[in-house]
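Dear support,

Our group has been running a series of protein-ligand predictions, and this particular one with manganese (II) ion is the one our PI (initials K.S.) wants archived with full inputs and outputs. We had some confusion internally about which version of the output was final, so please treat the block below as the authoritative record. The input we submitted was:
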Amino acid sequence: MVTHEQKIHLHKNDLPEGLSFTGAIAVDTETLGLKPSRDRLCLVQLSAGDGEVHIVQMDGENYDAPNLKAVLGDRALVKIFHYARFDLAVIAQYLNVHAAPLWCTKIASKLTRTYTDRHGLKDLCRELLGVDLSKAQQSSDWGAAELSDAQLNYAASDVLHLHALKEKLETMLDREGRRPMAEACFDFVLVRSAMDLAGWDDMDIFAH
Ligand code: MN
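Confirmed final output from the archive:
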């Protein structure tokens, strides 16, 4: 269960006019599956890190979403993801926008928490924040016209803690002198996700 006091705003097909964000915004997506070319984008969740979550539900036909695209494409706004590689590919595929610059809590975890191979969002929230995240709705039907409260709460919980995780992981990156390496990796995610969409999704081009 999420103990955080949260407020969920559900929007259809786009963010409303007049919302503005500064600094860094937490972003996550929910799709029908793990293949961007096959599995459509259903939800985009955003949070400024203040306990409020905006969920944009896409109907699958209208991906115009000018307000959402303006936020995701804002070069002055850092987008915080957990596993940015997937979200960037999906956002590029359906919204035709590059969600950069970005910060990825999964990459930062892999570069700092080398004492474990558990880098899931649930693992990070438990260890770094003492927050127990439910993953019960992870594989539910995100394409449903009416989402359940359990689905909305789950979708919201994926962005509620990313600011706090970023702060903890930044301290760990600095402690180990790995912030420059992390930043170079974050920049590369844009290319990595484009390569996923272009057909190099299962190949490590750095491998021998
Ligand atoms: Mn999610």
